[in-house]
Every structure is written in structure tokens, then in C-alpha cells.
């Protein structure tokens, strides 16, 4: 307590007369030892009187004895120990539906299938299995700064970003118009295709619930179990991912996957909607308390990823409350840019908006990426411009359709900045920004009492002077480093010269070899072209031979068919001839039986004679 009081006192003096801050040693009985350099503290009292207190580390008495108690100093310390006012806190609830059945289905995804599942749908199985601890989230929301859309702490600010959510979820951000609203008319064919169901199954089970329409969880659970038993893993994965979207990522009604979640699942660009649902849920409940409905596992994972993963912060889990541990953190303790992926491009604006407007499942709100650059590894150079952090969007979804359309148009022109604009990657904040945050804390107030930092902090500002022996030592070290740098430069120059000489020799040795290699290369190319031509000709001949073989086989088949047909006709003709021959024989036999010799007739003989006579009377030319 005394140490914090002295720090407050020194800060007070610095604000009055710009006295440099230093690091103190032991503190007790309103006295302290100054360990670094000579320090002059000038205290200004309410009555206008001033006194000076000089501390000299060269004075051995100062190192062995505490400074004598000074009444005026005690009065000022007493003023500094007045309790700091705190902001009002609210109680929030973070209810989640039981996920036992869904987790059991998720466990059916084998390790061999996991990579493909994550590549297609993102790391949503991790979010499904994440146990949401309400205490860190309860603590985080007490620091919410509604005007700036961020969380403001003692000397730093945190705010989730599109890039961070994309990395944590394992889903890239598509620079296109994100989800705006559910279609006015339900297209059951698109939904059935996405969920690998029949249109009839979707139509029969599509139901309303609490003002929204969608599919019951129990229906999809039953269908997914059947697909898993049949080992239709592609269908099973799609249905499992859709259920996680509706229950974990975009929760709406208990045990229900609404139309909005299904539409976002089909669109394949969930990151902007996840971020806006987080901001809108927190902002709409700020100062009121109540239930926070958004993707809680993702918000918790984001917050934990920025906190220290080892050291005193983790060692005091069982001895200090979450509020105390968070209040002990400074900007020096935060794990800036703690993600595996290196962020190079940052979405900073959209269309005519100087910040980023977002459309969620419930409402619309903007967020300010300029406050989160340090989280992405960039320098925060100073306080942001008013236009960059001004509230540009905040309304319930159905209350302003014109504004909703304007946001959709703005997302067609995404403003992305990279290192050429944001500067080199160096996760620090300049004093102008830090001072601005501290002044904002004085206005906004903190929700809990300040705590001593658990981890050792670096000195804020160095002293004006250093001991002579330290200066001489630093001077000698600087001279030694300069000499070493000169030697290194000379070695580098020699190495470059040797390299050039060796390269020249190599070119001379390889001169003839290069021309020979070029000629060989040409001959190789010619041979390769010839081989290619022969290969093409061979392929053509093989194709022609195959065609001819096919034609021959077709002709042989036709000849065989024709021979069979002729044989059938010959057999039929032979049968017919045999039958007709038998009939002829039978007719001849019958004819022989019926033929009788003609009786002799005198009249016939007479007529024949008359005919012969008449024939003699007719001229021969007439007969011919």
C-alpha cells in the first residue's frame, strides 16, 4: 500500500512540475531510498508553499537509513491515499444450452478426417468442446467502453478484430458483401442441397420458433446419426457443421437452427457476422446486465489469448480473484500479436465509412480497427482521429432498411491497409496514445481497485543523470562496439571481394562449358522435339490401328451373321424342296392312277386328215 502511495505521489508531482519518474527501493514509515540517481522532488501544497527534498545516492546514510518523516509530505501522502472513485458494475449471464448430444457427434470425426473438416468448415469443433467460464467474461465486460467500442483498461485498450476472429476460427475473410438478412422467401432446394437432404425432408420439418423459422436440432441429430452409421462422412460433416453454426456460433432459440444460421453456413463467410454479433450483444446490454447471446467460446478464446500464459498471473489463479489479476496487468504484460499467423493486411474502413460497419443477425454496429492495431503487431502512434472512432452505425436490423442497404454497398469497397501505410511490425504504443488512454480512464473510471503489478515492470522514464563510473563504462563499451563494427565491416568487405573474384574465375572456367552446354541443350531440345513427333506419330498409328481393328472386327461379325442367315435360308429352302418333291411324287402317282387310254374314234381321224389338207392349201409365206 505504501509503495503504491509513493508511486501515486510521484505521479502527482510529475503532473505538476514535470519531475522525472524513477524506480524506488524499499519503502516504509513515509520514507524511501532512491537507488538510481540524484532526484529532486518539488511538492506544491494547497496553500502555495513549496519545499524541496533532495536525495543523493552517494550519501551512505541514505542507503542505510530511511528518510526522516516530514509533516508536509505526510499531508500530501494522506491526500494521495483517498480512495479512487470506481464505475458501476453490472451482472451478466452467459447461459449455454446442453451440448452433450452434439459433442458426442463431434467425437465421431476421426483424426484422419479432422484436417479435411477444419479445412472446409474451420476450427468449429474446438469451439464446440470449449467450456465457457463465466468469470473471465464477467470481468472483461466490466471494462467495456461503449463510446469507443472496446475494452479500456489502466493503460491499454483491447477490442476483437476481424483478423483475430479469422485466425482463431481458421476461416479466411472474404472481401465481399457479408450476410445482410435472410431471404424473404425460403428456397428449400438450396437448403436441402447444403444439408444433403431431400427437399421433402426440409419442407416437412421446417418450423417456426420464437419469431424465427428453421429446423429443430433433434431432427438434424437423428439424420446425422443415420448418416454416420452408413459411413456417409461427407454428408455427416456438412450436417454436423450446420448444427454447430446454429447452436454455438449463432445461437438464437434453444435446440433450434434458425434460417439466419443456415444462410450464413451456406454463404461460407461467417467471420464478419460473428464479430458484429459479439459487439452488438455487449453494446446492447451495457449498463443493463442480463444475458449475452453471441459466440461465447470465441469471445473467451480471444480474451484468454491476449493474457499472460505463464508467470505470476498464472501462478496466482488459486489465490487471487479474476478481477484482481486483471487489474494487476499493464500494457507490458499483454501478449500482443500472440497468434500463429502473421497479419499483414488489415481491414480499416468500408466505402464512405472511416471505420468498419457490420451487419449481424440481430442488429448493426460499427467497430474501430484503429484501436486494435497493437493486437495485430503494428505501432499505435497516437490518439485516434474523431472520425475513426465516431459512432457511425448502431441500430436494430429491421428499423432502418435504407441504412442496411447503404452498409451492403459500402462492403463492395473494402479499405485494406498494409505495412506500407501502417508501418513496420512493432507492437508498441507511443506515449501520446498511452496518455490519452489514461486520461480517458480518469473520465470513464475503472470498475475495481488498482493492484500492484504481479510481474516486474520496466522503468517508465530513466533518470536525468547516471554515476560517472557507469558513464565511463558505457563510453568504453560504446567505443568497443564501434571498433567491433568496423572490424566486421572490413571482414564483410573482404568477403564480398573474395566472392567477386571467385565468381569471375568461375565464369572464366565455365565459359566454354556454357557454350557446350547450350549446344547440348539445343541438341537435347531437337532430340526431344523429334521424340515428341515420333511419339505423336506412333500414337496416331496406334489409334488408326485400333480403328482398323475395330472395323475388321465389325466386318467379321457382319460376315458371321450373314453366313448364319444364309445357312438358315438354305436349310429352309432344302426343307421346302423336300416337301415339294414329295408332293410332286404324290401327284404323279395320283396322275398315273387317273390316266386312262382314249377310245378310238373315227371322227378324230377324219378331222386330222382335213387339217392336213387345209394346211396344203395355205401358202408357206403365210404360215411363217
TrEMBL record:
UniProt xrefs under Pfam families: DUF7745
Alphabetized UniProt keyword annotations: Coiled coil
Source taxon at top rank: Eukaryota
Coiled-coil features, chain-numbered ranges: 524-572
Keyword Cell wall biogenesis/degradation attached: no
DUF7745 domain boundaries: 102-442
Record's keyword annotation contains Transcription regulation: no
Name of the molecule in the record: DUF7745 domain-containing protein
Amino acid at each position: 500500500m505504501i509503495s503504491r502511495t509513493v508511486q501515486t505521489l510521484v505521479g502527482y508531482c510529475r503532473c505538476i512540475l514535470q519531475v522525472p519518474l524513477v524506480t524506488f527501493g524499499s519503502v516504509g514509515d513515509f520514507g524511501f531510498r532512491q537507488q538510481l540517481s540524484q532526484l529532486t522532488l518539488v511538492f506544491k501544497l494547497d496553500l502555495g508553499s513549496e519545499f524541496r527534498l533532495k536525495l543523493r545516492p552517494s550519501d551512505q546514510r541514505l542507503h542505510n537509513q530511511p528518510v526522516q518523516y516530514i509533516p508536509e509530505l505526510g499531508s500530501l501522502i494522506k491526500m494521495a491515499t483517498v480512495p479512487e472513485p470506481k464505475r458501476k458494475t453490472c451482472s451478466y449471464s452467459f447461459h449455454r444450452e446442453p451440448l452433450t448430444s452434439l459433442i458426442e457427434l463431434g467425437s465421431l470425426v476421426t483424426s484422419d478426417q479432422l484436417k479435411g473438416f477444419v479445412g472446409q468448415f474451420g476450427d468449429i469443433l474446438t469451439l464446440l468442446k470449449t467450456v465457457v467460464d463465466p468469470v473471465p467474461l464477467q470481468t472483461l465486460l466490466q471494462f467495456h467502453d461503449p463510446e469507443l467500442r472496446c475494452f479500456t483498461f489502466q493503460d491499454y485498450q483491447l477490442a476483437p478484430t476481424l483478423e483475430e476472429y479469422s485466425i482463431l476460427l481458421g476461416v479466411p475473410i472474404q472481401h465481399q458483401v457479408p450476410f445482410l438478412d435472410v431471404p424473404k422467401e425460403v428456397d428449400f432446394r438450396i437448403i436441402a442441397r447444403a444439408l444433403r437432404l431431400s427437399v421433402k425432408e426440409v419442407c416437412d420439418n421446417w418450423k417456426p420458433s420464437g419469431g424465427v423459422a428453421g429446423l429443430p436440432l433433434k431432427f438434424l441429430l437423428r439424420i446425422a446419426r443415420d448418416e454416420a452409421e452408413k459411413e456417409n462422412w461427407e454428408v455427416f460433416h456438412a450436417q454436423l457443421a450446420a448444427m454447430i453454426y446454429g447452436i454455438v456460433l449463432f445461437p438464437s432459440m434453444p435446440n433450434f437452427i434458425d434460417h439466419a444460421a443456415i444462410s450464413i453456413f451456406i454463404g461460407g463467410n461467417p467471420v464478419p457476422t460473428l464479430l458484429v454479433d459479439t459487439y452488438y450483444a455487449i453494446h446492447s446490454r451495457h449498463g443493463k446486465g442480463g444475458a449475452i447471446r453471441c459466440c461465447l467460446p470465441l469471445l473467451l478464446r480471444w480474451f484468454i489469448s491476449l493474457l499472460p500464459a505463464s508467470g505470476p498471473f498464472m501462478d496466482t489463479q488459486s489465490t487471487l480473484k479474476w478481477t484482481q489479476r486483471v487489474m494487476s496487468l499493464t500494457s507490458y504484460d499483454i501478449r500482443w500479436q500472440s497468434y500463429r499467423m502473421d497479419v499483414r493486411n488489415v481491414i480499416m474502413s468500408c466505402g464512405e465509412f472511416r471505420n468498419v460497419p457490420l451487419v449481424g443477425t440481430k442488429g448493426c454496429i460499427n467497430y474501430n480497427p484503429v484501436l486494435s492495431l497493437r493486437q495485430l503487431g503494428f505501432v499505435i502512434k497516437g490518439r485516434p482521429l474523431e472520425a475513426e472512432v465516431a459512432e457511425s452505425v448502431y441500430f436494430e436490423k429491421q428499423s432502418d432498411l435504407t441504412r442496411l442497404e447503404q452498409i451492403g454497398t459500402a462492403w463492395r469497397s473494402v479499405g485494406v491497409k498494409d505495412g506500407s501505410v501502417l508501418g513496420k511490425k512493432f507492437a508498441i504504443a507511443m506515449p501520446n496514445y498511452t496518455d490519452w488512454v489514461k486520461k480517458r480512464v480518469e473520465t470513464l473510471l475503472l470498475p475495481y481497485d488498482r493492484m500492484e503489478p504481479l510481474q516486474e515492470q520496466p522503468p517508465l522514464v530513466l533518470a536525468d543523470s547516471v554515476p560517472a563510473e557507469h558513464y565511463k563504462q558505457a563510453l568504453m563499451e560504446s567505443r568497443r562496439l564501434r571498433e567491433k563494427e568496423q572490424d566486421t565491416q572490413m571482414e564483410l568487405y573482404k568477403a564480398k571481394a573474395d566472392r567477386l573474384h571467385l565468381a569471375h574465375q568461375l565464369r572464366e572456367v565455365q565459359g566454354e562449358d556454357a557454350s557446350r552446354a547450350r549446344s547440348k541443350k539445343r541438341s537435347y531440345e531437337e532430340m526431344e522435339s523429334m521424340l515428341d513427333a515420333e511419339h505423336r506419330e506412333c500414337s496416331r498409328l496406334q489409334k488408326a490401328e485400333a480403328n482398323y481393328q475395330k472395323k475388321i472386327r465389325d466386318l467379321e461379325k457382319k460376315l458371321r451373321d450373314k453366313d448364319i442367315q444364309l445357312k438358315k435360308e438354305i436349310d429352309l429352302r432344302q426343307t421346302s424342296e423336300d416337301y415339294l418333291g414329295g408332293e410332286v411324287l404324290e401327284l404323279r402317282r395320283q396322275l398315273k392312277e387317273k390316266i386312262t387310254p382314249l377310245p378310238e374314234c373315227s371322227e378324230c381321224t377324219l378331222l386330222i386328215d382335213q387339217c392336213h389338207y387345209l394346211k396344203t392349201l395355205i401358202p408357206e409365206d403365210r404360215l411363217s
